[in-house]
Every structure is written in C-alpha cells, then in structure tokens.
Amino acid sequence: MQPKAVQFGAGNIGRGFTAQLFTESGYEVVFVDVIDEIVRLINERRSYPIQIVGDKSYTVVIQNIRAVHGNDREAVASEIRDASLVCTAVGVNVLPQIAPTIALGIRFRADSGVKEPLNIIICENLLHASDVLRGYVLDALPPEYSEYVWRNVGFVESVVSRMVPVMTEEQRKLDPLLIVVEEYKKLPVDRKGFIGPVPDIVGFQPYDNFEAYVERKLFTHNLGHAVCAYLGYLRGHQYIYQAVNDPAVRNVAEAALAETGEALIKRHGFTPEEHRGHIDDLLHRFANVALGDQVARVARDPIRKLGPDDRLIGGAKLALDYGIVPTNVCLATAAALKYDAADDPAAVELQRIIREQGIDSVFESICKISPDSQIAGLIREQYAILDSGRWP
C-alpha cells in the first residue's frame, strides 16, 4: 500500500513545504484544516500549484492529495489509524486543539492492534515541542494507552527554514490554493525523536545533535531576519530584499551574525567555513526579489521577539556567554524597541509601555533582564544612537 501522511494545517508550511516533501517521496497527503474553502478546493481539484521563485523560477504541481475537515474528529482519527506519518504546521496556540484528535487516532491504532510506529513531525516554532505535544496527547488519552504512546509514537522536532511570504489579495483571488515559496527545501529533524528507522523523505536531514540546529536557526536565520526587518523599517523599506541590499542594514546584519556566529561555532563545533557559508547562503536568500517577503511580516509581534530566550535577547546572551560583546545584536534590539507599526497590536502595546513606563519596564517585564545588566546597558546606548540620528 502507498504510505500516507496526515498533514495538520494546509497553510504556508503544510501546503507550501511539507506536502511537497511527502508527495515527492511517494506519499499520499491527507490535509486536515478547518477552513471550509481550502478543504473543499483540495477535494475538488486534488492538486494545487507551488510557485517557486528565486535565481530560477518554476511551478510545481502537488498531486496525490485530499483533505478532511478538522472538525470531523472521527474521520481524521480514522486517517491517522493507517497513516505512516503525521505532521503538524498549525501554530503553537493550536496544538492543544488538535492534540485530542491525534490522541483519538492513536487510540484507534492501539485498539486495532497496529504495531507499526507512527512518527509525528512537529513543524512549530516552539522550544521542546516534542515534550509539549506528547504531554497534550497523553493528557487526552486514558492512562492505559500511555505505554502504547511511548513504545509506538515518535514526536519529532524539526527546524523549518523555507521562507513563505504572505500572499497578496491579488494572488489569493487568482487561486486560493496557490503558494509562492523559495526553492530551499531542507528540513533538519531530530533523529532521536523517531520510533524505528527514519523514513526516507526528500529534504529530511536527521541530526543527533539537533539542539545545535535549533539554535543556529534561531540565532542566525531568525536573528538575521529580525535585524533586516527592524532596521529596514527604520530606513523606510517595505521588503526584506530592499533592507538586506541597503549597505547600512547589511553591515549591521553581517556584524550581528558574526557575533552570534562566533558563539555558535564555539558552542556547537560548526567549522568557521561551514557557518560562514550558511550565513552567505541565508543573506542571498533574504535578497530574493521575486519572493517579495515583507518587512511587516518578519517584524510582526515584537513583544514575542523581545522575549528572554528569543532571537534578540537570547542572541545577545549567547554572545556574552562566550565573551563576545553583542553591540550589533543590541542595535537591532534597539530598533525593535522603536518598531511602531500602527497595524501591529503588539507594536502598539510595546510603544504604550515605553511611553508610559519607560524602556526599563520593557527590560523587566518582556525581556526579563535587569535594567542594570550589561545587555540592557548596550541596548540603551544603541537606542540613544538611533534617537540621535547617528545611525546609519
């Protein structure tokens, strides 16, 4: 029988990334989503286009697909019963909502005597995502199923780096199923999370030292994106490619990535040549004009991105842990503190806190650092530089 992958979430990552990997590997993909139009169109057409843009642009048609509505828990659980893989790309806040359905599917497998392992690929921006989702699933199952879960179900973390911009209204009207993506299609996965052999999936890169690749994504890709977005916003840019091609922004981005890069090399043993190549490739991808990735998309939700372990504050802490002064990371952090897009609720709230309570309140309540810390002092210095117009 043809193997089957149940894909929770038919959005940017599910439709624009993982379904391509699964179908190219010979799997049937069953999407699970709650948007009526998306479910209907997938079942009517049984295919959709992915437009891949970059140095060379082309269209891939994804076939061998169908969809089940997420509200039909019994139907979804029945699909999980005889699936080879499950994948989630729904957003962290939705995981508690889909966990009971996953649990029901696991219960169906156990009750049917299915011994083949079920591996769940977790494509969510969440630290320790495997422990979190496993906990939700176990909470939704009677205790007698716990042993089956631990023996037969793998919870596999991944690092999603393919860039998928927000679709324009014109593109949505042209085809609601169309997705525009970059060509990059590698998916690092935690080898230790699998039960049984790692399946042979196009793009999968299994690593034993998976934490190294999680941190590299956060403090290289995510951090570099943040530098370009927040400084690009101050420079009046609408797109990431404009920001990364602006010498003033590019210089800070390269310097910030050198700060965290030196720390990552020391911490995880990446070779300088390997890591420099990774940074160069990343900045080349950021400069993809055809992708049209928006500054507003990347900068959105600055409160989350100023969190104590996220790309900016976390990157500054990482650098300091290895004796590196993160001046440029802190310049980007200061730019994030100035992000005041009126259509971003988090940005509006951030500016209210700064206006009414001061930056020290942000350090304490959002960044979770002392206003007297070295990082806070560096950010304050860079904030003053931005205020005075001395940058760029």
Task: Walk me through the topology.
Elements: E1 4-8, H1 12-24, E2 28-33, H2 36-45, E3 47-53, E4 58-63, E5 65-69, H3 73-81, E6 85-88, H4 95-111, E7 118-122, H5 129-139, H6 146-152, E8 153-157, H7 169-174, E9 179-182, E10 187-190, E11 204-207, H8 210-234, H9 240-244, H10 247-268, H11 272-286, H12 295-299, H13 302-305, H14 311-321, H15 327-337, H16 345-357, H17 359-367, H18 374-388
Parallel strand pairs: 1-2, 1-6, 2-5, 3-9, 6-7, 7-8, 10-11
Antiparallel strand pairs: 3-4
Question: What can you see in these coordinates?
Answer:
The structure is a single chain. By secondary structure, the chain is α/β, with parallel strands linked by helices. 53% of the residues lie in helices and 14% in strands. The protein is built from 18 helices and eleven strands. Strands 5-2-1-6-7-8 form a six-stranded parallel β-sheet, sandwiched between helices. A three-stranded mixed β-sheet has the order 4-3-9. The protein has a two-stranded parallel ribbon with strand order 10-11. The longest helix is centred in the middle third of the chain and has 25 residues. The N and C termini lie far apart (61 Å).
